[in-house]
Write a structure and sequence with these properties.
The complex is a heterodimer.
Chain A: H1 3-22, H2 44-61, H3 69-82, E1 91-95, E2 102-104, E3 109-113, H4 114-119, H5 123-138, H6 141-150, H7 153-177, H8 182-198, H9 204-219, H10 225-228, H11 230-234, H12 238-251, H13 259-266, H14 270-279, H15 283-295, H16 300-314, H17 319-331, H18 339-351, H19 354-367, H20 374-385
Parallel strand pairs in A: 1-3
Antiparallel strand pairs in A: 2-3
Helix pairs in contact in A: 2-7, 5-8, 5-9, 6-7, 8-12, 9-12, 9-15, 14-16, 15-16, 16-17, 16-18, 17-18, 18-19, 19-20
Chain B: H1 2-13, E1 18-22, E2 25-29, E3 33-37, E4 41-45, E5 52-56, E6 64-71, H2 98-109, E7 115-126, E8 129-139, E9 146-156, E10 159-168, H3 172-186, E11 188-189
Antiparallel strand pairs in B: 1-4, 2-3, 3-11, 4-5, 5-6, 6-10, 7-8, 8-9, 9-10
Classes of the chains: A mainly alpha, B alpha+beta.
Chain lengths: 386, 190
């Protein structure tokens, strides 16, 4: 790295520290470093970049990457507005995975999983997450993490196992598998808040992200969030984080949440993301998410259908009644999802309500004749008619 | 399946798992299901894979036949994670309808972040019972391999019996699909 970049990075670190110390008293400021140059391959940072380049090459070909040009461009533009001059170095990959996760590699590869996109209620919340990841990137936290791991005794064993040639790659894997330190997370939160404020978003939405996640984690029966979610086990405690961000929001007021734009760019993918969500089998968490979206009036027919699905699949006492109510509400809505009628049919069939089941199944097949389960549903109609 | 894959490799490397040849002809799995096979099948057994057995022809990183025999009401599907944690995400209930059983298997097969797309679900006589057959596509998260799969199952006396086979979609799945269909048609449940 050239002397100028080192100086800039050093200034940036100092700015982060200064901002951190002033936190809670005055509005923070942040001086971003200049764009990074590719480090020499013989350095640990160069090895880390090379490793991430290989990861990116594989990811680029992955069928799990969402090939939705409009949404990807939208998110890329959003990242650019937050990037503090690093836009040309940031490359967005939206990955079809139902868990809540985003990560940014030191080479500029920014991955966002669809489970996270599903949970965002507006553009400002997505800006909060991206701003946080860019905060890690600008402060080169992953390099610090790599060096921290290198200094541990365990790294010696890795070096012995794989030799020097494999060492950097193995350490990069290790670096990627460990969480950032709490200090890093707090610093990234602060930088992210500043970046989103500067881009015109309300910082309070970053606190809302953590508040919503906390609600979901608490819904898991008999488990504290730190035990039920790896995210909470390795990150700062969510209430503390939420409260810190809420405090920041008071120091950085104003902004517009951009909800309409976010809905416009993601509405057509909600069905697919919700299908993936319920396959996780984390029914209590899904119910919190879906109920929140229903209360907010977001795609209510679709959300009610999926909440019905969650109840039916969970199958606890009273769940079929709850599923029935949601299916009926979804079917009576302005944009009823065809499988809502299948849901009515399945519950009615189980209750022995043959006529209702048959009519609902017939309606489902009218609306979705090419559904994958059409043959099975047709067999139910035949059985119910006999 | 990523976790199952990792667990398989770890257990084999540490000699905690066993591999044995599956004999041609009828093989009793559990107490009640008999599977008639030909060809070179291997049965892998190791802690954590229960309640299924894994059989393979090409090697477990390529193709796998999951065999579920006599899953009882309330039994947890694959409760042990490679990290030794107990997981209870997916539980079989004797009152499950076909869609719910397939959803449960979808959940098991996508628990590692793999994508799963159901292609077909239809009635199918399995082991002489009124059962089901389904086809699916799956992108395996760990290595992005695009797989195809086919599954069969039925509930008898409140217990679940099922076979699920999956392999890379271009070569291995077409190579073995007809063999799997033949196996499924010949399953008997006592």
């Amino acid at each position: 790295m050239k002397r100028r970049q080192l100086l800039a990075a050093g200034c940036a670190c100092c700015a982060g520290v200064i901002a951190g110390r002033a936190w809670g008293q005055t509005a923070p400021d942040y001086l971003a470093p200049q764009r990074f140059q590719r480090p020499d391959l013989s350095t640990d940072e160069g090895g880390l970049w090379a490793m991430m380049d290989r990861e990116e090459k594989a990811l680029r070909r992955s069928p799990l990457v969402l090939r939705d040009a409009r949404l990807t461009t939208y998110v890329q533009d959003l990242a650019c507005r937050l990037s503090a001059g690093h836009c040309p170095d940031i490359r967005i990959f939206l990955v079809r995975t139902p868990q809540f996760n985003a990560s940014m590699a030191p080479n500029g590869m920014l991955q966002i999983w669809t489970g996270l996109l599903l949970r965002m209620e507006n553009e400002a919340q997505l800006a909060a997450v991206i701003g946080h990841e860019i905060g890690h990137y600008l402060q080169r936290h992953s390099v610090e993490r790599l060096r921290d791991i290198k200094s541990r005794a365990a790294a010696g064993q890795v070096l012995a196992l794989f030799g020097l040639a494999g060492a950097i790659g193995q350490l990069a894997v290790l670096a990627g598998s460990f969480a950032y330190s709490r200090d890093h997370e707090h610093e990234a939160d602060r930088i992210g808040a500043y970046l989103m404020h500067r881009a015109g978003y309300p910082v309070a939405e970053s606190a809302a992200v953590w508040s919503n996640l906390l609600d979901e984690a608490r819904a898991r029966e008999g488990e504290e969030p730190s035990q039920s979610s790896p995210l909470f086990a390795t990150h700062p405690v969510p209430p503390e984080r939420r409260d810190n961000l809420a405090q920041l929001a008071k120091l950085l007021p104003g902004g517009a949440d951009g909800k309409d734009r976010y809905v416009e760019h993601t509405a057509h993918l909600l069905d697919e993301w919700l299908q993936d969500e319920i396959k996780r089998g984390q029914y209590a968490e899904s119910l919190v998410l879906l109920s929140r979206r229903i209360d907010a009036g977001s795609a209510p027919d679709l959300m009610r259908y999926y909440r019905g699905e969650v109840h039916r699949l969970r199958g606890q006492a009273g769940d079929h009644d709850l599923a029935w109510n949601d299916y009926q509400a979804a079917a009576a809505g302005a944009a009823p999802p065809p499988p809502a009628f299948r849901g009515i049919g399945l519950v009615a069939r189980q209750r022995g309500q043959k006529d209702e089941a048959r009519h609902a199944f017939a309606r489902y097949l009218d609306l979705a004749p090419d559904a994958p389960d059409a043959a099975l549903i047709q067999s139910y109609i035949t059985e119910l008619s006999s | 399946m990523k976790n199952l894959l990792i667990l398989t490799l770890v257990m084999l490397l540490t000699a905690c798992g066993t591999v044995r040849k599956v004999e041609s002809g009828a093989n009793l799995v559990g107490e009640r299901m008999s599977i008639k096979v030909d060809g070179n099948w291997n049965h892998l057994d190791f802690p954590g894979i229960k309640p299924a057995q894994i059989w393979t022809m090409e090697g477990v990183t390529i193709d796998e036949l999951l065999v579920y025999s006599g899953i009882r009401d309330g039994q947890i599907m694959h409760p042990d994670s490679p990290a030794g944690e107990k997981r209870k995400d997916f539980v079989f209930r004797k009152t499950m309808q076909t869609e719910e059983i397939v959803s449960m298997l979808e959940g098991v097969l996508s628990r590692d972040g793999s994508s799963f797309k159901l292609r077909k679900l239809e009635p199918f006589p399995f082991g002489g019972r009124k059962g089901f057959r389904f086809e699916y596509e799956r992108v395996r998260k760990i290595d992005n391999v695009q797989m195809r799969g086919v599954g069969f199952g039925a509930i008898d006396k409140d217990e679940l019996f099922a076979l699920v086979y999956q392999a890379p979609r271009l070569t291995f799945f077409p190579r073995h699909q007809s063999r799997i269909e033949t196996i499924a048609k010949a399953v008997s449940i006592k």
